[in-house]
Design a protein that fits this description.
With 104 residues, this protein is mainly α. The protein is 63% helix and 0% strand. It has four helices and no strands. α2 packs across α3 and α2 crosses α4.
Length: 104
């Protein structure tokens, strides 16, 4: 089934997701537990973003199940890193502390 997804067969992708979803969600929960408090991304959203990268555009081939889940874990890691970088940019208030106007 991984080969069919790698070849871009949409039905294979739809068939594969229910089979691997729980394992992907478990990986996402582990990744999210390692993140700093205040993370707004939910594990389900992380799974969905990673899935879009894995089964989305472009041809990908996985050697086996372990290779697929390794690629999924790496995709999740990169998503979290990109979000952290985006959040820390000065343009988005990086390095500033929020203050409630009622407290001023």
């Amino acid at each position: 089934m991984l080969d069919a997804v790698a070849r871009g067969q949409k039905q294979a992708s739809a068939n594969l997701l229910p089979l691997v979803y729980e394992e992907l969600r478990r990986l996402a929960l582990i990744r999210m537990a390692q993140e700093a408090p205040g993370q707004t991304l939910q594990p389900t959203a992380l799974v969905h973003e990673a899935w879009l990268q894995l089964a989305g555009t472009g041809e990908r081939s996985w050697q086996n199940r372990a290779h697929f889940f390794g690629a999924a874990a790496e995709a999740m890691r990169r998503i979290l890193i990109d979000r952290a970088r985006r959040k820390s940019r000065i343009k988005h208030g990086g390095g500033q502390v929020r203050v409630d106007l009622n407290d001023i």
